[in-house]
Amino acid sequence: MYPSSLMARVLKAKYISNSNFLEANIGNNASYVWRSIVSGRELLKEGLRWRIGDDKNVLVFKDPWISRPTLFQPISRPSLNTENLKISGLMSPFGWHKEKLESILLLMDQELVWSIPSSSRQRPDRRCPCSALGGGSDSNWWRKLWRSVWRFGGVVLYGQF
């Protein structure tokens, strides 16, 4: 929330220097605060969806990216040759590739994909809260997240590094 705060800078320098928060390891001899933060990360990931940008990072059948409540993935089943297909495989220079979409996705998935604008600015794909993708925001999810964060005890979170 405050990436320039002293706590954020210390944690980043000690634990996240060569990766990002979502992929960082706990590491050896990690502080109680860092272990607590990492243990809540999986819950945080459940509320994150991919926002399509340059189409290079998101897997069509494995990553959450479609605005469908709870699942956020296509319900279409991949074939052996499309199992690890990235979003870039569904794009043409002018946007979504109609024939490719029709050949691998069910009609209900196609309709959801057509509602996603293709990015012309070539920004990287990024993760964002599901509410930022237009719907699907679950207030119970946020409630669970805050309960798990505060379950560690405010005094411990503020008092130890």
Per the principal axes of the C-alpha atoms, what is the gross shape?
elongated
Rg value: 19 Å
The chain-level mean pLDDT equals 78
Total number of distinct structural domains: 2
The helix-strand sequence is HHHEEEHHEHH
> How many β-strands, per DSSP?
4
Record the strand order, biggest sheet.
1-4
Largest sheet: 2 strands, antiparallel
Q: Helix- and strand-based class?
A: mainly alpha
Number of helices: 7
Helix content: 25-40%
N-to-C span: 17 Å
Q: Which regions have little confidence, pLDDT < 50, spanning 5+ residues?
A: 132-137, 154-161
Please report which band the strand proportion falls in: under 5%, 5-15%, 15-25%, 25-35%, 35-45% or over 45%: 5-15%
Word description of this protein:
This is Reverse transcriptase. It comes from Ficus carica. This protein has helices at residues 6-15, 32-39, 41-46, 98-104, 107-114, 139-151, 154-159, and strands spanning 48-51, 91-92, 95-96, 126-129. The chain is elongated, with a radius of gyration of 19 Å. It contains 7 helices and 4 strands; from the N terminus they run H-H-H-E-E-E-H-H-E-H-H. It has a two-stranded antiparallel sheet. Strands 2-3 form a two-stranded antiparallel sheet. The chain is mainly alpha-helical and 161 residues long.
